[in-house]
Amino acid sequence: MDGSILSGAWVEVARLSDIPRLGSRVVGTAKGDVAIFRTSDDQVFALDDHCPHKGGPLSQGIVHGHNVTCPLHNWVIDLNSGEAQAPDIGCIKRTPVRLEGDRILLALRA
Amino acid sequence: MNMLSPQRQRLVVIGNGMAGMRTVGELLARTPHRYDITVFGAEPHPNYDRIALSSVLAGEKTLDEIVINSRAWYDENNIRLITSDPVVSIDRVARTVTSQSGLVAPYDKLLLATGSKPLVPPLPGLTLPGVCTFRDIADVNQMITASETQHRAVVIGGGLLGLEAAWGLKRRGMSVAVVHLMPTLMERQLDVAAGTLLQRDLDERGIAFFTNGQTEEITGTERATGVKLSDGREVPADIVVVAIGIRPNVDLGKACGLEVNRGIVVGDDMATADASIYAVGECIEHRGQVFGLVLPIWEQAKVCAARLAGDEDASYVTPPLSTKLKITGIDVFSAGALSAAAEEDEELIYQDRKRGTYRKLLLRDNRIVGTVLYGEVKDGPWYFQQMRDGTDIEAIRDRLILGEAAASLTGTVDPTAKVKALADSAEICGCNGVCKGTITAAITDLKLTTLDGVRAHTKASASCGSCTPLVEGLLLLTTGVDAKAAGPKPMCKCTSHGHAFVRRAIVAEGMKTIPEVMHRLGWLRPDGCHSCRPALNYYLLCAWPGEYVDDAQSRFVNERNHANIQKDGTYSVIPRMWGGQTNPRELRAIADVADKFGIPEMKVTGGQRIDLLGVKREDLPAVWADLNAAGMVSGHAYGKALRTVKTCVGSTWCRFGTQDSTSMGVALEKMTWGSWHPHKVKLAVSGCPRNCAEATIKDFGVIAVDSGWELHIAGNGGIHLRGTDLLCKVETPDEVLEYCGAFLQLYREEAYYLDRTAPYVERVGLDYVKAQVVEDAANRRALYERFLFAQTFAQHDPWAAQNENTTFKTLVPAE
Lengths: 110, 815
Ligand SMILES: Cc1cc2nc3c(=O)[nH]c(=O)nc-3n(C[C@H](O)[C@H](O)[C@H](O)COP(=O)(O)OP(=O)(O)OC[C@H]3O[C@@H](n4cnc5c(N)ncnc54)[C@H](O)[C@@H]3O)c2cc1C
Ligand code: HEM
Ligand code: SF4
Ligand code: FES
Description:
The complex is a heterodimer of chains A (about 110) and B (about 800).
Chain A: H1 2-5, E1 8-15, E2 23-29, E3 32-38, E4 44-48, E5 62-64, E6 67-69, E7 76-78, E8 97-100, E9 103-109
Antiparallel strand pairs in A: 1-9, 2-3, 3-4, 5-6, 6-7, 8-9
Chain B: E1 9-14, H1 18-30, E2 35-40, H2 53-57, H3 71-76, E3 80-82, E4 87-91, E5 96-99, E6 104-106, E7 109-112, E8 116-118, E9 131-133, H4 137-149, E10 152-156, H5 160-171, E11 175-179, H6 192-204, E12 207-210, E13 215-219, E14 226-229, E15 234-236, E16 239-242, E17 246-248, H7 251-255, E18 264-266, E19 277-279, E20 284-286, H8 294-308, E21 322-324, E22 332-336, E23 346-352, E24 357-364, E25 367-374, H9 380-389, H10 397-400, H11 404-407, H12 417-420, E26 427-429, E27 434-435, H13 436-445, H14 451-458, H15 468-479, H16 483-486, H17 499-508, H18 514-520, H19 532-543, H20 557-561, E28 564-565, E29 571-573, H21 584-596, E30 601-604, E31 610-615, H22 620-629, E32 642-647, H23 661-672, E33 681-686, E34 700-705, E35 708-713, E36 725-730, H24 733-750, H25 757-764, H26 766-775, H27 777-794, H28 798-802
Parallel strand pairs in B: 1-2, 1-7, 2-3, 7-19, 9-16, 10-11, 10-16, 11-12, 18-20, 32-33, 33-34
Antiparallel strand pairs in B: 4-5, 5-6, 8-17, 13-14, 14-15, 21-22, 22-25, 23-24, 24-25, 26-27, 28-29, 29-31, 30-31, 34-35, 35-36
The structure holds flavin-adenine dinucleotide, protoporphyrin IX containing FE, iron/sulfur cluster and FE2/S2 (inorganic) cluster.
Protoporphyrin IX containing FE (HEM) binds next to strand 32 of chain B.
């Protein structure tokens, strides 16, 4: 049902255990790299692996709370909204993601 | 011979526990010479912090760390301490007590402080091996031993004690089930909503619950094998912990004819019906009430000591009580009434399901009469204070539930107004039971001006730190010093503590993980942030070599991926070249790697080695595998770590050279490579004072002279160029190694994260470093040995360990 709302499909990309807590993995998609994050409360989030500042790989940043700090110049990005924390301004595209048991499903657009 | 001694009275204390010894401590503070004191203890130990047994069970503290009064303390205060020998009878006519071993001690005044016994229901199977209670060190040792060989534990009792036991056993690797008689946990301290949240959180941590569970029998014949509930459910177990409550230990009082109900009855003066016998702690009953928390007991100790010292006015009133659960990461606060009891009672409730927080305030006549907080408890002490003060909350009612910050938004606030209003007896630090009067007295008497000073002398604000603003207020009020402005800078926005305090606390309190530090020191954000996590990871790594498990997720990308991220997201790879020496085999391997992986650029670095630039993340493990195969290891060119040891060719080739600087450099690099530091560390060795290796702008620079080696420290290049300071001169290469290891270890142990050696040495002073490393030979060797010990765990090539690491791979969506 979820899949039909988006003009794409839920695709399994990993198991939760493939990502360390407070860590991230990169998923290669037709539209570019997507970073999936796992927070300390075992929620998962997916953002383009491309910092709104100068394109740093967010997947390589330090995850804290529901945020990630970009490894290049320390912008802090909110994993929920994809927005940079004040005073920085910028936003990065989110990809719908959900957990089904241990499986991480990403809504990849066709 | 002491002329006063014939007039000294004899005080005998039965019970070497928290209440008894607190009373003795208060008494000595008032009148050190009035009594000859004898203390009988049934346990073999000196007085220890019973509360902390939970932390010992959970592996967060050691037994040594929870001793309150060491045996030396008893000696210093001329107290006769008799341990492992319980008193078995009291003769009130002869005024003597008799111990199990037959010792008879006469008294003028007697103090009963026998505590309580675990409540044990009359269940079949109670005496089987594998069944224990949770009261003293012997119980904890029994549980720890069991957890080493056994797997399943059942705890009977879902109250404070039972849950702390369950959590401790869980932390020790057992699978744990809790059997609880009531429908929700901790029903005496929490309402149904908070109790349910608590159960959910503990459930997530892997503890199983059997609520509404009436235990009927402990099963087993040789030893306990489980428990059977009255509704037929059976829970298998290798050990069973009974923690359903306590009952005052009144045996002695009863036997000698004192008035006893639930506890030994005392008046407001803490005396029993016999005016020469006093009683304090969990063994007493005062105005119908019995006790199970230390806060009222501290009050009893104070009053009892005052009476024993001759103060006829001291009188005990039970203070309002609050409860906290000591389970790392689970925050619960409760005080006063739990639910509306009368018509006019009102409840204010605020719940955030997503964050898992809950607060409830119970109001009567515009005053708080009860507080239950779950998940976020920092406002607990403030609500509790309003409750004790009976503050009328009408004016702030609309914001009250949001906590202190929201409720006190009243324009400009005088930072001292709040502490000024408190009575001297108001408790400021809940963790260590320190009140306002004690703190202001210490500030005045000892002329304290800093937060750390107050912490050191009073322990206030030294544990969880939540009372720090109050202590700062007191400093400002008493001395006019604004500790906030003058005090050490907090590490980051997640905490009010500075680096120095955190480093010391980690070592002093034996904290072993980042979550533990954050929890015990009251971090404001649960996972910290990108500044404090790498710092804590380093501090723990430095404090507990070989024991601490490095947390990759708390490392900056470079140290996690063991390569240096570049502006386009690719990496640079720099293999180590010992002392800048290389050979055809290494150069060939580097060239092959560059070809094989299409590496776009190569460069010789200022650190005398070769940089491969533009390596893709996914290629890193394979690049490393090839370099490893050629015998090369990581150069740590990316880390807060030992970078390079730059050398000149020295006496082997150079016509000016006085010593073999290259070999010296290689030896230094072999000793120091792989070491982690507060910041990057660079070394150099020059073969003569012409100093071609630029050793005088290095963290540790060595310059060869005819008669030996000059050692220089704390230099750096960079924006603020700083030449080194001369540390000393030594004669042999072995000494160079020893002094180098010692200095680096001193820096590792004392510097704040992200301070290089220059700011560190400027902070502590060159003389201090000389005193530690040059003048005190024993200390130097100890530092050196600690450095070498840490190195046994650090000198593993990170690349070798990463070959198996799959997190570098990009994931491919399943089709
Ligand atoms: C695991 C655990 C966690 C706790 N956590 C908290 C907490 O977080 N907060 C809180 O406020 N309280 C807590 N408590 C309760 C607190 O420890 C007690 O309230 C306090 O220790 C009571 O002091 P006491 O001196 O009355 O008894 P005890 O400290 O038990 O001292 C009594 C001593 O008397 C000895 N004794 C008994 N009979 C004799 C005899 N005939 N001769 C000689 N010696 C005798 C006993 O062996 C014992 O050593 C906890 C208790 C436990 C067990
Ligand atoms: C804020 C200040 C500095 C930053 C951010 C910085 C950054 C870096 C980085 C990222 C590298 C690794 C390059 C790579 O992997 O390709 C490097 C290497 C190096 N830096 Fe700096 N640096 C700083 C200050 C200095 C200073 C003060 C000096 C000395 C005067 C210095 C000397 C060197 C040298 C010699 C190397 C090569 C090291 C080696 O071979 O391992 N840097 N620096
Ligand atoms: S420092 Fe002295 S020994 Fe070393 S290369 Fe320069 S001149 Fe020669
Ligand atoms: S690219 Fe992310 S902070 Fe600059």
